[in-house]
Amino acid sequence: FTVTGSTISSIEVDKAGTSILITLDAALDTAAKPLIDLTGTVDDTAGNSIVLFTGKTPADGLSPVIGTPTLTGTGASGQAVSNGSLTIAFSSGEAAATTPTVTGTYLNAVSGGNLTATGSVATPTVTSTGTNAWEAIIKATTATGTSKAGLVNVRISLTDAAGNTATAGIARLL
To answer: Mean pLDDT in runs of 10 for the chain (174 residues)?
Structure first.
């Protein structure tokens, strides 16, 4: 086997004998679409040979990577203030098949120091800010819960063209 633009460090057959696992010296970006060529002979246990092929792209089974979200508040300290808003900016290493989703939910402390979601989930509009980059704004008035001075859990979900979904999250004061 050869992989265009990469060096193969090992090749193994999975335990079921149905897949070939190719390990490369360097990791590929999740958006990469490497071309694979069969340059030698591969026989199954019955002695049947796989037909030579060139330029095949393997199925994309990798979820996109969401960069660490950047949160910006309306207060002087960078925290959102009462009746203010929280801007969530994020990016991905590959394009999204559809507009990503962002949700915000208030969290309250319960017995034992654990946190629990309270109130409704705010689902703000997500807008594109560039190539593979987005932004959403959660207003303090749109996330309802028992504590408007509490911690907000922000969750981002993004699906790539192959249907692989990634989620990322962060919690901040609102």
So the answer is: 91 84 88 87 82 84 88 65 76 93 80 72 92 89 58 87 89 56
Order of strands, sheet of 133-139, starting from the edge strand that comes earlier in the sequence: 70-73, 85-91, 133-139, 126-130
CA distances to 7, 58, 61, 102, 137 from 26, rounded to whole Å, are 8, 17, 17, 32, 37
Q: Which amino acid type is present at position 150?
A: G
- Encoded amino acid at 103, one letter: T
Residue 170, classified by CB atoms within 10 Å of its CB into exposed (0-12), middle (13-18) or buried (19+), is middle
Residue 172 CB neighbours (<10 A): 19
Provide the 3-class DSSP secondary structure of residue 64. Answer: coil
pTM: 0.73
DSSP state of 111: G
CA distance 101 to 81: 23
What b/e readout covers 138-159, taking b as 16+ CB neighbours within 10 angstroms?
bbbeebebeeeebebbbbbebb
Pairing of strands 126-130, 133-139: antiparallel
Residue 142 is which amino acid? Answer: T
Q: Are 88 and 153 in contact (CB under 8 A)?
A: no
